[in-house]
Every structure is written in structure tokens, then in C-alpha cells.
Write a structure and sequence with these properties.
The protein contains five helices and eight strands. By secondary structure, the protein is of the alpha/beta class. The chain has a single domain, classed as Pyruvate-ferredoxin oxidoreductase, PFOR, domain III (Pyruvate-ferredoxin Oxidoreductase, domain 3).
């Protein structure tokens, strides 16, 4: 069983991100569950949400304390709360930030950390700092746990019309950067958005 913990702030779509992962996993014919941390979600306040994916029915119904993967939607949480609690050396941490790792404060040593400039991608494609679907694209590309076609289906089911198509485009952009040779991907134009200050994203249709 795979356990994923998502950190962000109220209003950033943290719970939606967890639910989209679970729905995409369901379309991949896996068992899944998603739920938020208990308590009232206030805009701007730290929020956690959790997703589990497995090949068998999942009986667990408690918080995720030792995650296999951590997604941090807001880098200002670093140092403000312990987003790395329960993480081990093989835990993959994906952080939304334009900074490289040397510029970030509050990182735990020994963790496998990747950065994705999701806010920049969102502004470029969506025109708004809506970053959850972008981080899910990067997550799927880095982990191979979800088929991008299943994520696309989950996003289209959740977001209708133009906003849905833009979110799919944003998800594809992140996914196809991490897997440029994937048969799912085809590139149309280059966007000057760095990943880990070394590579470039390509906007996809």
C-alpha cells in the first residue's frame, strides 16, 4: 500500500488534490481512499490531506504518519510546521517553489526532495495560482503510480468546460516534462520555466 500526505493552506485545493489522486487510482483499477485532516479548514491556515492506494481493500482510516510521498503545495510552510514528520530517506518530497534546494530553509537532511515551479506554470497556463493539478502531474510523472490518462479523466470529471481543459493542459505540462519520451506526451511550444534551475518545461496541448 502507498501512502501520500499533502500539505498546503486553506483555499489551495489540498483536499481536491488528494481526491483526484484517489479517483485516478480507481480508474487505474486500484483501491484508494482520500480524506482531509480533521478540523475546520480556514483560508490560509495549514491543511493536510491524505491518500492511500493499494491492490487490496484498504481498512485503515487514520491519518498518515509515515508517508511514502509528501507533496508540499506552499513552500512558506517549511519551517512553519513540520511537513517532514514521519518521513524516511526513501520518502519522495515534492515542493512547489521556484527556488533551488540550496535556497530553501527548513529542509530535513537526507530526504529525496524535488522542486516544481507549479505557481509559475499555473500563471502561465491558467492565469491564476491554482497549482494542485500541476503538482499531481509532476507526482504521476516522477512516481509512475498513476496513468496520466486516468488523471486527465479525473480532472475532467471534477472541472467542467474551459477550466477543466486548462487544468488538464497544466497537468500534462508537468507530467510530460518529467517523462518527455512518454507516448502520452507531445510538445508544442517551449515555456521558460525552470525545474530545479536546470531544465525547462514545455507547454502541451
Amino acid at each position: 500500500m502507498i501512502e501520500i500526505r499533502i500539505h498546503g493552506r486553506g483555499g489551495q485545493g489540498v483536499v481536491t488534490a488528494a481526491e483526484l489522486i484517489a479517483v485516478a487510482a480507481f480508474y487505474d483499477e486500484k483501491f484508494s481512499q482520500a480524506f482531509p485532516s480533521f478540523g475546520v479548514e480556514r483560508r490560509g491556515a495549514p491543511v493536510e490531506a491524505y491518500t492511500r492506494i493499494g491492490d487490496k481493500f484498504i481498512n485503515r482510516r487514520w491519518h498518515i504518519y509515515e508517508p511514502d510521498f509528501i507533496i508540499v503545495q506552499d513552500a512558506t510552510l517549511l519551517g512553519a510546521i513540520n511537513v517532514f514528520k514521519g518521513a524516511e530517506e526513501n520518502t519522495l518530497v515534492i515542493i512547489n517553489t521556484e527556488k533551488n534546494l540550496k535556497e530553501l530553509k527548513g529542509l530535513s537532511k537526507g530526504l529525496h526532495i524535488k522542486t516544481v515551479p507549479a505557481t509559475q506554470i499555473a500563471l502561465d497556463i491558467l492565469g491564476r495560482p491554482i497549482i494542485n493539478t500541476i503538482l499531481l502531474g509532476a507526482f504521476a510523472g516522477m512516481t509512475k503510480l498513476l496513468k496520466p490518462s486516468s488523471l486527465e479523466k479525473a480532472i475532467r470529471e471534477r472541472f467542467k468546460g474551459e477550466i477543466g481543459e486548462k487544468n488538464i493542459k497544466a497537468m500534462k505540462t508537468a507530467y510530460c516534462h518529467t517523462n518527455p519520451d512518454d507516448k502520452y506526451c507531445y510538445l508544442t511550444k517551449k515555456a521558460k520555466i525552470p525545474l530545479d534551475s536546470k531544465q525547462k518545461f514545455a507547454v502541451t496541448t
